[in-house]
Every structure is written in structure tokens, then in C-alpha cells.
Amino acid sequence: MKRALMVGALACAARVVSADVVISEWMYSGANGEFVEFTNVGVAPVDMTNWSYSDTDAQPGDLLFLDVFGVVMPGESVILTDVSAAAFRGAWGLADSVKIFGPNANSNLGRNDQINLYDALGLLVDQLSFGDQNYPGTPRTQNRSCNIPAADYAFTVAQPTWVLSGDGDEFGSWVSTGYDVGTPGYVIPVPASLALAGACGLLLRRRR
Question: 196: helix, coil or strand?
Fold first, then answer.
């Protein structure tokens, strides 16, 4: 038991980042566009001004338009997509309060790709490598997204235990106008006092 706790602690220690913003959901291809969802799972607001995104190039500053997200409140999710914000919002029935940046012509996520998020200093905040070809048995997010379980935010590679939206997930998936399945939008965290009980993550439930 002590060994297991030590391994868990080391995994969390290796995940020290400059802010509590994580990659929480992604879909590399969809009828209504691809998207990446970033969520503030911390207890304080995070200003994403001068933050950037990159794929396998892994270059801070590749895309600096994350400025449009501004201050992201605890529990808030923001969306990066390759279609217009208006089109994405309409397709998924999202409220005007959900912050969306699109079209992001620089994303072009592939079946096997990587998502990198950098803060204003160019420091890597979060990273996800995914692809069912590179990592057999992991979700292929074509027309269905994958939500990363809160307890697995420390992982930087997609896991075989993760499931596609609609496959018995507890996140409350819904269907877009193009019949994509996902949960882009908000995440509501439980009180911060319970965060450590969730293997360095927050136990989350989603709402539209």
C-alpha cells in the first residue's frame, strides 16, 4: 500500500505545471469540426493571455490566439476548433458564455497526433499524444470525442482504459447537428478539499 501511494505521489510530482489548466477532451475529426477542450481544474482563475498551442511541432508560440479565452475561471472549459466559433456553437447547442476560438487553421489534428499547451512564458502546461495506430487499443476520436478521466490528467499519452463519448461514459454526452458525439463545454469541479482524493485530479461531472 505504501509503495502504491509513493508511486502515485511521484506521478503527481512529475506533473508539476505552471497552471491548473488541462487538456480534458478532444476529437481529431468530426462532421462539425475537430476540437480540443481545455479546462481550469484549479481553484483560482487563470489568465490565458499570450498562451499558445502546438501539435507535433511542439513549438511554443505556434498559435497565440488563445488570448481570446482571457481569464478562465475554476471549472470553466474553453474550446479550440478548426471551424468558426459560431458554427461550432450552433452545431453543439452551446451557450454564448462558452468561450470558443475558431477557425484554427493551424491545428489540423490527425488520427495520430499530439496536443501541446504552453503558458505565457512558453512553458509546457499540458501535453497529450494520441492515436489508435501509435497506441493500439486507445480511442480513435473520429466523430466521437474522448474525455480524459480526472484521475488520469497526469498522463501525457492516451490510455486504453479511456472510452469514447457515448460508450457508457459518465460525462453526459450529447449529439451535434452532424451526429458527432461529445461533451464540449463546462466542467464543474467538486470542492478543492477533495482534489487529492482523486489521484491528483478533481472528480468532475459535466453539464451542457
Answer: helix
pLDDT digits (tens, 9 = 90+) for 57-91: 899 988 777 999 999 999 999 999 999 999 999 99
Q: What is the CA radius of gyration of the chain?
A: 16
**DSSP state at residue 144:** B
Res. 12: pLDDT tops 80:
no
Neighbours of 63 (CB within 10 A): 19
Give the position of cell 461529445: 182
Distance CA 51, CA 118 (A): 6
Q: How many domains does the chain have?
A: 1
E strand or H helix at 81: strand 77-81
pLDDT digits (tens, 9 = 90+) for 100-149: 999 987 767 999 999 999 999 999 999 999 999 999 999 999 999 999 99
Q: Which residues span the domain enclosing 171?
A: 2-207
Q: Which residues of 3-34 are buried (b: 16+ CB within 10 A; e: fewer)?
A: eeeeeeeeeeeeeeeebbbbbbbbbbbbebbb
Question: What is the CATH classification number for the domain harbouring 116?
Answer: 2.60.40.1260
